[in-house]
Amino acid sequence: GQQVQQSPASLVLQEGENAELQCNFSTSLNSMQWFYQRPGGSLVSLFYNPSGTKQSGRLTSTTVIKERRSSLHISSSQTTDSGTYLCAMEPGGSNAKLTFGKGTKLSVKS
Amino acid sequence: GALVYQYPRRTICKSGTSMRMECQAVGFQATSVAWYRQSPQKTFELIALSTVNSAIKYEQNFTQEKFPISHPNLSFSSMTVLNAYLEDRGLYLCGARDWGGAEQFFGPGTRLTVL
Hints:
A: 6-stranded mixed β-sheet; globular; B: mainly beta
């Protein structure tokens, strides 16, 4: 079955609102990464966060291993935050093999 | 910094023909190189994983006969899509991992269109 469940599939916000994206995984975890996918398809690495909390500007990632979940929080969203966000996990023992979620399509309106 | 280049960025091929794409790690030595495909309306699927000192391992639904990979050194990998058909279209991404690290660095991808 699907090892990574990402939610929501899509999200529409007004500029200034906060966004919370979630990934739940069904197996043990070696690592977790969050990406932003540009319209052209290329991936921008936002966080490499196997555990704990990391912050970069308005973005915060929290991974709780024992609860098998990771979240990406976007505060004070801007229209330029619109796009697709993907989480990807490396299952325990998989040695560099990433399993991607299906993505969250975020639309921020002005 | 660690960068991954992919070439070409876009390509179009006729149905039944083959197409080769390349991936190069710059600024670091890749201990593993993974090829992924994102088909239209789908998420990324792992095609194959190549690690130092081990054979290239293909995922279910992907074979060496269809997607032969060459990984001659730690910095360079190439993959060919043989006899491409409509279901092979999509974005092909290469991800590489550095010594001592678990983070994967991705190239910009090669977008394949099959006519």
